[in-house]
Amino acid sequence: MISRIDPTAPVPTQARQAQMQLDYLRARQDEMRGNGARGAQGPAGEDGPAGAQGPAGAQGPAGAQGPAGAQGPAGDAETKSVSIALFAETDAVSISTGTTGFPINSTLNGRNVTALTAVVATPGTGGTTDVIVRRRRSGTEVLMFSSATKISGGGYFSANGVPDTNNDDVATGDTLYVDVTAVNNAPPLGLSVVITFSGV
């Protein structure tokens, strides 16, 4: 509806008249369009489903190297062995003091004698055959075992001798001898020994 001008109202200024006319025209346009007043904003709708995952990004650079792990335990020391024939296979073993020595060279220097294995070709009977190692160093001799290796009657071999830890070391220039200090009641035939060195 168009408002009528009150004849008793004060006359508006030119600027005011222009504004009133503009307001009047806007009101008329709204009436013609049928637009009511703008309502309040409605509530937000529910979230839609998540989109598909995008492709993986490029791999980043490698990280810094971590600290070194603890050192592992030391491995077993290398062992070396030498064999010596004392009696031929058909010869009866007898008590004897070794006269042919085994010289120690630089490859064995600093090692320790850790075992003495004695082997016969034909076993004896009764009692034991006892074998031990003797070391000569600068003219001085010592036994390298606190107890001899003993082959029992009927046995072919033994390695039960116990090294003397105070005298089991060897150095370049030493000479080792093998002594037979006892034999079976019926002596065995043939005798060979193996001396084992460990360390370094």
Spatial shape: rod-shaped
Identify the CATH class of the domain at 79-198: Mainly Beta
* Terminal residue distance: 120 Å
Percent helix, as a range, is: 10-25%
- E-strand count: 11
Residue runs with pLDDT of under 50 for 5 or more positions: none
Number of helical segments? 1
CATH architecture of the domain at 79-198: Sandwich
CATH topology of the domain at 79-198: Jelly Rolls
N-to-C series of helices and strands = HEEEEEEEEEEE
Report the sheet-strand fraction. Answer: 35-45%
- Structural class, by secondary structure, is mainly beta
The radius of gyration over CA amounts to: 56 Å
Task: Report mean pLDDT, rounded to a whole number.
Answer: 87
Account of the 3D structure:
The strands form three sheets. Strands 2, 4, 5, 7 and 10 form a five-stranded antiparallel beta sheet that branches. Strands 1-11-3-8 form a four-stranded antiparallel beta sheet, with no helix packed on it. The protein starts with 13 loop residues before the first helix and ends with a strand. The chain has about 200 residues and is mostly beta strands. It is built from one helix and eleven strands.
